[in-house]
Amino acid sequence: MHDLLSGEDDIEVVGEAGTAADALARIPATRPDVAVLDVRLPDGSGVEVCREIRSRDESVRCLMLTSFADDEALFDAIMAGAAGYVLKDIRGGELLTAVRDVAAGRSLLDPVATARVLERLRDGGGARGDDRLSRLTDQERRILELIGEGLTNRAIGERLHLAEKTIKNYVSSLLSKLGMQRRSQAAAYVARMQAGKN
Question: For 27-85, what is each residue's pLDDT tens digit?
């Protein structure tokens, strides 16, 4: 991939990392326009790296690489604020186009699939049958919906006129009520349950 990208006149490779920990250290140091992240890393998930990087610096656009197209990967990528995700068997020319598109500010997430995810999150009505979701307050449901739109804690705070720390507390609370560790799990769970009801 390094050879493919660095062979292009308009693309400069500013750094590489083999692990999530490496990526979390190198991306802020090199401040790339686009970070190409493998969904599966030896010490964690590229989705988590994407979420962490974008919570610190929303100007970095993340392009996720995954081995297979599944709804869970798409949900996780959307929740983390990724600009798109492509399959690893993508041809070289298509990958270059994807990197350029993401750098130019375009989203590679399939609009229909993205809309489906967000619609399921917004339609809280279908989720009432689940006891765990019924424990959420209205404010927690609203925050869950905004997580579904790919917003960071800071952006959610701005939208709801609350401090980022307050949002962090709400997110911890709603994850705890849902019995989950990661915000992407919560959103994917709601979307999957909605799919079962439709």
Answer: 999 999 999 999 888 898 898 899 899 888 889 999 998 877 666 667 777 778 888 88
Residue 36 φ/ψ, nearest 5 degrees: -95, 115
Handedness of CA 149, 154, 158, 160 (dihedral sign): positive
157 φ/ψ angles, rounded to the nearest 5 degrees: -60, -45
Ranking 22-31, 53-62, 180-189 by mean pLDDT, the lowest is 180-189
Q: For residue 7, give the DSSP letter.
A: T
Residue 5 tokens read as 């990208």
Predicted TM-score (pTM) above 0.70: no
Listed in sequence order, the residues at least 6 apart from 10 whose beta carbon sits closer than 8 Å to its beta carbon are: 100
Highest mean pLDDT among 71-80, 93-102, 104-113: 93-102
Write the DSSP assignment of 38-51 as a string of letters.
Answer: ESEETTEEHHHHHH
| Spatial separation of the C-alpha atoms in residues 37 and 24, rounded to whole Å | 11
Q: Provide the CB-side half-sphere exposure for 113 (13 A, CA).
A: 19
Q: Distance between CA atoms of 174 and 132, rounded to whole angstroms?
A: 10
| DSSP SS3 for 155 | helix
Could you give the CA distance from residue 155 to residue 146 in angstroms, rounded to a whole number? 9
**Chain CA centroid to CA 185, Å:** 11
107 vs 61 pLDDT, higher one: 61
Token reading at 93: 């020319």
